[in-house]
Design brief:
Two copies of one chain form a homodimer. With 237 residues, chain A is of the alpha+beta class. Chain A folds into two domains: 112 residues, Protein Yojf, Chain: A; 101 residues, Trna Endonuclease, Chain: A, domain 1 (3-Layer(aba) Sandwich), CATH 3.40.1350. Helices cover 19% and strands 44% of the residues of chain A. In chain A, strands 1, 2, 3, 4, 5, 6, 7 and 8 form an eight-stranded antiparallel β-sheet that branches. At the A-B interface, strand 1, strand 2, strand 3, strand 8 and strand 9 of A face strand 1, strand 2, strand 3, strand 8 and strand 9 of B. Chain B binds a DNA duplex (15 and 15 nucleotides) through strand 5, strand 11, helix 3 and helix 4.
Chain lengths: 237, 237
DNA sequence: GCCTAGGTCCCGTTC
DNA sequence: GAACGGGGCCTAGGC
């Protein structure tokens, strides 16, 4: 591939030709390969994918994705850091391994439709609207939570888990604040309860769950457990 | 594309040519497009991806994936069911929308390296080693949990959440069993505690967490709360 | 390396 | 549609 080329396509390459292609480009390029194959995964779980057409993507960081004709999720995958080896037998076999945990994917390829190597230089990514930003807003403007609130510690660590935001209310009582960027569910309530149970062994403490909404059961549970829910208005800024 | 062809490649297509390509194939084929673009997402959160080379995958179920040069996760995406429209301006603009929640991705393309439409017929997928199978094993061989255990109800629903497995021990005391396929963490303990708190309002009850391992803090918490941990040996079958 | 918790989580299932 | 919980979750951040 010349210096100026962004990509290189091989149509219907032979097994040997694809092996060479992979070893030439796997460390510098993203590989996109469309094949007829079956796949075996073994590791934390175990799976088989029977013969079919699948799209294989291999990134230079070691990521391996095997996509089918639908769904956002790959059918099989290997995360960054995984190795890739190939063997040529009756079929072409690709094996990707990771160490921790020990996991392996074996792709048995009977037919290669095409393979592309691309030189991919991605842009910079920025995101807004995360939970972290809710916390930052409350730290900057504590009255958004309630009048008289004073933030003390972000990500306060306890043996029961890490508290999003610890503070005190206007009376000086400790307040544990748990933030959720989406509708709060039962698990958010137990999470908050867990922190409260820890701290209340030492001090009187209030627990407040901050979220744009809450499910019915979560709301009933939070009341039953003497905790508070504060609806978060995203335009509060 | 002829009946027998598995795929069709366009090299450096014009904007208009890609628009036609997309409208011809988006309902029947998976599209794989490598471009120089920037991306704007708005919906549950908001993000921007600045100019760079990115791989766009569009599946016929509406899934949209925008991949960069590393990581398993797409930089931006849209799940199945999303629409796709294109506009030709100074740049080529692709817009993908979903209704619930209302979310939009805008891809502004300045250069198209190549586009492929593939006819993808995926194989059948099977997986072993899930939590569900742990539960099935205990239902089939209750003594694997403990001598005298009797399973009563799988996925027993309560206002505090759904219990993996409800049963009775040899003394007739209710037992709530929570299974984890990996190492159990703090959240698993609070989850179990939540169910126990519900049921113990009505009956005496034990809570057992079953997993191949447990973190230090989770183990301390489970003891403190009077719950039990049962180590799961995967070869128990 | 372990552990905690978020995520535009996705996804299946159940009501 | 709402909600609950699993996932080979992945990923980031602490220690």
């Amino acid at each position: 591939m010349s210096f100026l080329e962004k990509y290189l396509v091989k149509h219907n390459p032979s097994f040997e030709s694809l092996q060479e292609f992979i070893s030439n480009y796997q460390n510098t390029h993203m590989l996109i390969i469309f094949v007829s194959c079956k796949v075996f995964y073994t590791g934390r779980a175990k799976s088989t994918l029977s013969w079919g057409d699948h799209l294989i993507i291999r990134k230079k960081d070691g990521t391996l994705l095997i996509h089918g004709s639908n769904k956002r999720e790959p059918i099989n995958w290997q995360p960054p850091g995984s190795s890739l080896k190939s063997k040529c037998r009756r079929n072409l076999i690709l094996i990707s391994r990771r160490r921790h945990p020990k996991e392996e994917i074996k792709i048995v390829i009977s037919k290669i439709y095409f393979a592309v190597a691309v030189d991919c230089r991605e842009g910079k990514f920025q995101i807004l609207g995360t939970e972290n930003q809710m916390v930052q807003q409350v730290i900057a403007k504590p009255y958004l939570l309630e009048e008289g609130f004073t933030p003390l510690k972000r990500e306060f660590q306890t043996p029961y888990g890490n508290i999003d935001l610890l503070g005190k209310d206007k009376k000086g009582t400790f307040v544990i604040v748990e933030f959720k960027r989406g509708k709060a569910q039962l698990s958010a309530v137990s999470q908050l309860k867990r922190y409260v149970e820890y701290l209340q062994k030492k001090h009187p403490v209030r627990g407040i769950l901050v979220a744009p909404g809450i499910t019915k059961s979560a709301e009933e549970l939070i009341k039953k457990w003497g905790l508070e829910f504060k609806k978060w208005l995203s335009k509060a800024s």
